[in-house]
């Protein structure tokens, strides 16, 4: 297909306070189509609506959140990855948030059923 006119979906926050940076990194979707963005350097995952409005923020469990994905038997667990200490000086970790009333969008290979 062809690309139509481009427009800004959302204005993301800039670096604030003691943050080391604000680099939107990994993203995923919930069943309602909301976008979850891991913000490297902000210690959080932001949730944006279909219109690009900020709905909520979740703590990422680490300063350098790099990826975010839904998982678990009910797809209601949000996982993030990132470093455990100062940038470049620590090991990484996997963090889980148990969400109630929210389910991730299952993206499966063609032909595979959940």
Helix and strand topology:
Blueprint: E1 23-29, E2 35-40, E3 44-48, E4 54-59, E5 67-71, E6 77-83, E7 92-98
Antiparallel strand pairs: 1-2, 2-3, 3-4, 5-6, 6-7
What do these coordinates show?
The structure is a single chain. Helix content is 0%, strand content 38%. It contains no helices and 7 strands. The protein has a 4-stranded antiparallel beta sheet, with no helix packed on it. Strand 1 and strand 2 form a beta hairpin. It starts with 22 loop residues before the first strand and ends in a 16-residue tail after the last strand.
Summarize the structure.
This protein has 114 residues and is an all-beta fold.
Labels describing this entry:
mainly beta, Thrombin, subunit H, three-stranded antiparallel beta sheet, 0% helix, globular
Figure out the total of helices: 0
- Architecture per CATH nomenclature, i.e. the level-2 architecture of the domain at 23-98: Beta Barrel
Can you identify the CATH class of the domain at 23-98?
Mainly Beta
Low-pLDDT segments: none
Task: Give the CATH topology of the domain at 23-98.
Answer: Thrombin, subunit H
β-strand percent reads 35-45%
Order of helices and strands: EEEEEEE
- Strand order in the largest sheet: 1-2-3-4
How far apart the termini lie comes to 29 Å
Number of strands: 7
């Amino acid at each position: 297909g062809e690309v139509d006119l481009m427009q800004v979906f959302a204005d993301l926050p800039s670096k604030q306070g003691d943050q080391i940076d604000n680099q939107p990194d990994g993203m995923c979707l919930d069943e309602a189509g909301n976008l979850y963005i891991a913000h490297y350097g902000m210690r959080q995952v932001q949730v944006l609506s279909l219109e690009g409005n900020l709905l909520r923020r979740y703590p990422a469990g680490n300063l350098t959140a790099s990826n975010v994905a839904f998982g678990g038997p009910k797809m209601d667990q949000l996982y993030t990855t990132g470093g455990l200490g100062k940038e470049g000086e620590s090991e990484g970790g996997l963090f889980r948030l148990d969400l109630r009333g929210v389910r991730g969008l299952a993206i499966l290979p063609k032909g595979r059923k959940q």
